[in-house]
Each structure stands twice: as C-alpha cells, then as structure tokens.
C-alpha cells in the first residue's frame, strides 16, 4: 500500500460502504471482523487516491477548445462526480 510514509506491506483498508474508515495493520483485531476480504494479489493499493486529471468532458476536449464555454461544459459534465 502506498502511504505518506512510502510503500508499506501488511496493511489493511477498512471500509464502511464506500468510505475509508481506517488503515490498520493486518493483525489488527478489527480485520477479523471484516465481512468481505479482497486479495489484491500483489497489486499496489492507493487508498483515497483520486485521479483528477481530465482532458475534457461532455464531448469537449481541452486540446480542441480552450474558451470559457468549453470549460463550463467540461465542468458541468464532471460536476456529478
């Protein structure tokens, strides 16, 4: 898992619905109570990371249109997320 301290092994993300509740050591007592476990098979997890880089939205690309109306269209397309 990638944390503020770099890559760490032996950590578990505890969720409530779709929200992160805690990042704990794998031997934490709360892990035993978890209802669902997902083995990532050696993949790297980046909890809470959101890739906010966008190239456009709503059928408009920044590289084709760089004006206020294009920005408004793109923003409206992403607003629901």
Automatic annotation (TrEMBL):
Top-level taxon of the source organism: Bacteria
State a single Gene Ontology molecular function: N-acetylglucosamine-6-phosphate deacetylase activity
> GO BP, one example?
N-acetylglucosamine catabolic process
Q: Which InterPro entries match?
A: Metal-dep_hydrolase_composite (IPR011059), Metal_Hydrolase (IPR032466)
Q: Which UniProt keywords apply?
A: Hydrolase
Q: Which family does it belong to?
A: Belongs to the metallo-dependent hydrolases superfamily. NagA family.
UniProt protein name: N-acetylglucosamine-6-phosphate deacetylase
Species the sequence originates in: Xanthomonas perforans
What does the organism's lineage look like at the top?
Bacteria, Pseudomonadati, Pseudomonadota, Gammaproteobacteria, Lysobacterales
